[in-house]
Design brief:
This protein has 5 helices and 7 strands. Strands 1-3-4-2-5-6-7 form a 7-stranded mixed beta sheet, sandwiched between helices.
Length: about 200
């Protein structure tokens, strides 16, 4: 996809701060330091519109990025980071639950998992939560450049088994370093927008 415009719009913590222009939204969920910000930057071909940090737990709001005036990428706070206080974790949980439970423009959640590691308990909880509420999900395995190609399918199999993934849910191999999976992931997003238009 050709990116003509990409901008950071708002860091939201409450529903009254969410954008009201009803553009389709695609949320990125994953544990701290899994590479969500790097994925956003690669998707929009910008070096650091989404601020990356070596310090896990940096994102503490829902960060909205508008792309080509046609959709939002919404970066969730990373979960599973021990040094975030219990109160903050509970606040994050409530914020995410509020968003996922009642957000009309939300078209899909991208569950971001580091291909090198089996899904965490938090990853499994998030996946089960999305399935329970009937929210479409695509599993995106980041950092594919960090392991050899002949290991990819083995690691994807482990991820699917641990999540007990629905075979209909797509898995996209991704590398923010090389751009692997960028075009495929854009196609997933655009297809989803088309599907929702047809069903309206």
């Amino acid at each position: 996809m050709n990116i003509t415009q990409a901008e950071f719009v708002i860091s939201a913590v409450r529903p009254n701060q969410y954008p009201e222009d009803a553009l389709p939204e695609f949320a990125l969920a994953g544990r701290s330091n899994v590479g969500k910000s790097s994925l956003i930057n690669r998707m929009i071909n910008r070096k650091n519109l989404a601020r990356t940090s070596s310090q896990p737990g940096k994102t503490q709001q829902l960060n909205y990025y508008r792309v080509n005036q046609m959709l939002y990428l919404v970066d969730f706070p990373g979960y599973g980071y021990a040094r975030v206080s219990k109160t903050q974790r509970e606040q994050f949980g409530q914020m995410i639950e509020t968003f996922l439970g009642d957000r009309e423009p939300l078209k899909m959640v991208l569950l971001i998992i580091d291909i090198r590691h089996p899904p965490s308990q938090d990853d499994c909880l998030m996946y089960n939560w999305l399935k329970h509420y009937g929210i479409p999900v695509t599993i995106v395995t980041t950092k594919a450049d960090k392991i050899s190609k002949n290991q990819w399918q083995k690691h994807i199999k482990i991820i699917k088994e641990k999540l007990e993934a629905d075979p209909r849910d797509k898995v996209v191999l991704f590398s923010s370093e090389t751009g692997l999976g960028r075009d495929e992931l854009w196609q997933v997003l655009l297809n989803r927008i088309e599907e929702t238009k047809e069903s309206e």
